[in-house]
Amino acid sequence: MVTIPGWLKPAVPKRLLFFAAAMVWAIAAYRVFLLALRYIPEGPLPVWVIAVLGLAGIAVFFNLVFLRVSRKYIRRIAEMEQKNPCLFAFFGWKSYLLIALMAGMGIVFAQYELIPLFLQGIFYISLSGSLLLSALMFINAGVLYKKVKSEDTNPEL
User: Fold this and answer.
1) Contacts 24+ apart (CB under 8 A), 39-43
2) pLDDT tens string 100-145
3) Which of 52, 66, 112, 114 is the one with CA 20 to 30 A from 12?
4) How many CB atoms lie under 10 A from the CB of residue 8?
5) 3 state SS of 10
């Protein structure tokens, strides 16, 4: 097994992992929402219709995807054995690959206009809202997180 030098593995308290994950999701939500603002006016539908469809998409997208994923990562952080895990441990390495793949796909969709622009606007509203709700879940988990006594094996949230 390869040991990583301490300066390459910044250790932080678990509570900070919740806030780091929230920051990542919130920044992603902001960036995606900027894309939504770019593509909303490009369609044949009134802006209010696109906004309503985007809000409906948030409800569907968040409940079908992000709620489960956020709960999984919150549980993952809470159940870590290390007292001070690595700052980047709020996601597993597979998740970082998935995020890179999704970002790459987003760039391809935006660059080559594979779907109509106003549909991209609806999708980006749905995605950014779902990311923001996930960020709020991580903030909530960080605020409610309780440190675990050394003999207790189940962290409380």
Assistant:
1) 39/117, 39/118, 39/120, 39/121, 39/124, 40/118, 40/121, 40/125, 42/117, 42/118, 42/121, 43/116, 43/117, 43/118, 43/119, 43/121
2) 888 888 788 778 878 887 788 899 999 999 999 999 999 999 999 8
3) 66
4) 7
5) coil
Tokens describing residue 37: 């603002």
Kindly state the helix (H) or strand (E) to which residue 90 belongs, with its residue range: none
> Do 100 and 26 touch, CB atoms closer than 8 A?
no
Query: Which pLDDT tens digits describe the chain residue by residue (157 residues)?
Result: 666 666 667 888 889 999 999 999 999 999 999 988 888 887 788 989 999 999 999 999 999 999 999 999 999 999 988 888 888 888 887 888 888 888 888 788 778 878 887 788 899 999 999 999 999 999 999 999 886 544 445 555 5
Q: Hey, what are 57's tokens?
A: 């998409």
Amino acid at 143: V
Query: Counting runs of H as helices and runs of E as strands, what totals does the chain give?
Result: 5, 0
Cα 142 from chain centroid?
15
Q: Among 109, 122, 132, which residue's Cα sits nearest to residue 47? A: 122
